[in-house]
Amino acid sequence: MKKITLTTIIVFFVFININAQQEKGITGYENWLDTWTDFKPNKASYDEPTQILSGDIAENTTLNKRNIYLLLGEVYVMNNATLTIEPGTIILGDYETNGSLTISRGSKINAVGTPTDPIIFTSSRTDKKSGDWGGIFILGNAPINTFGNVSSINYGLNPSSTENISYGGDEIESDSGHLEYVRVEYSGKRTKNFGNYNGITIAAIGEQTIIKNVMVSYSDGNSFNILGGNPNLSHTVSYRSSRNDYSFNYGAQCSIKNALAIRSPYVSSADGSRCMYIKSYDLKENADADKNLTYVHAENLTLVNVSNDLKSDINVGLVQEAIFIGEDVSFHINKSVISGFKPAVYFDSKLAINSVNLDRIKFTNSYFNNCEGNIFRKNYQNNDDLESWYGSRAFNNVYSKGPDSETFIDANNSRYPDFRLRINKIIASNDIIQDDE
Fold first, then answer.
1. 339 with 404: CB under 8 angstroms?
2. How far apart are CA 328 and CA 295, in angstroms?
3. Cα–Cα distance, 303 to 323 (Å, whole number)
């Protein structure tokens, strides 16, 4: 005779459940947003800067935690130098001079914080607002799809050499450094003639560059602006960007995994703002047809629009699509969550619905929640062909309606929200099962 308590069984399954992972959306045995992120950065206060960064950095340089740095005007790491930043270091982007940091081709940035001691780039102002300072540019030697394979960033910058703002080349595996446990806050300042800076612009960086556990919040431009190259992004967070959370262009061959974008209906720009904006060029005639189209492989993403009254916000036109896909791109999103948008996805109106395009744009094993419409072509009211195609069992997508409180583990936590999908809990009992043999 065996006597097995149900409690023992329940404890066993609870242990398994606690250590289980939801396969769709951001995933992990623990909430990887804990400790290093900050969803209320306006509450933080810092001492006055003790060191000034300005002009050209032409030799290996280390920024130490014991100092607070002021990024004054345009700062360039050049001449194949490496800028190393210690965990816990604070760098303030100057409001008056539009502070910005550019890592030029051949140079590197090694900014590696820790979960309890992240590196922070933020505004120099006491009353911080989106667009207070410029942003960060990391420029590499990997390919882009423009003619000549070299381009330059253009925000009205005045470097000592145009080489300092050039990007592109043929080194797919090049290494521009390592960013990990880094926060970039209140960047994306608007310029008179060149539009907004972005939180982090990564242009033509190679596969060996590491970008992991990086959070961009309250950017008045794109949070992550990806121009060509072969970047790999993991555990990145975009929070309340005024423009796009992740923008891809110029033939980028990008892998993005376990990433989060949190939008608000009340934060946007006049020319549109989405979680993901994917295109291959600005003007087709400027792209080299013999070079790569933009390709984005996205895995375990959570794209969520947080609203207290989603229906009302949709009705008054405050909610846009989560993903915009331009013509001549390849895109595959797998095991991801798209929640709270109108609609979930827009294809460019120029993108023909045919077997070639449908074969290179894939939505698989994903969870569409609380979206008013799923996949449409821009300016077309009828999406029956797309719904039929992506709704087939072969793609294994799921469609649902549920509030954030029931969809995510702890979306309302103001300090460390948890946007992993909920896994059903098992309720313990003291009853006994007797199994006689």
1. yes
2. 9
3. 9
Side-chain-side CA neighbours of 103 within 13 Å: the count stands at 30
CA distance 284 to 81: 36
Q: What's the token pair of residue 296?
A: 């984005």
Q: What's the pTM value of the predicted model, to 2 decimals? A: 0.92
Residue 10 pLDDT: 42
Among 216, 223, 301, smallest CA distance to 257 is for: 301
Are the beta carbons of 293 and 280 closer than 8 angstroms?
yes
* Cα–Cα distance, 91 to 84 (Å, whole number): 13
For residue 200, the model assigns a pLDDT of: 98
In angstroms, the CA 42 to CA 128 distance is: 6
Averaged over successive runs of 10 residues, the pLDDT of the chain (437 residues) comes to: 46 46 88 95 94 98 98 98 98 97 98 98 96 98 94 92 96 97 97 92 98 98 98 98 97 98 87 92 93 97 94 92 96 97 96 93 96 93 90 92 92 92 50 37
**Strand blocks (E) in 242-336:** 246-249, 253-263, 276-278, 294-305, 323-325, 329-334
Query: Residue 326 corresponds to which tokens in the numbers above?
Result: 């331009």
- Return the pLDDT at 21: 60
Token output for 197: 């800076």
From the list 389, 335, 336, 379, the residue with the least C-alpha distance to 358 is 389
**Tokens coding 76:** 């360039």
Topology adopted by domain 23-421: Pectate Lyase C-like (2.160.20)
Sorted by where each begins, the domain ranges of the chain are 23-421
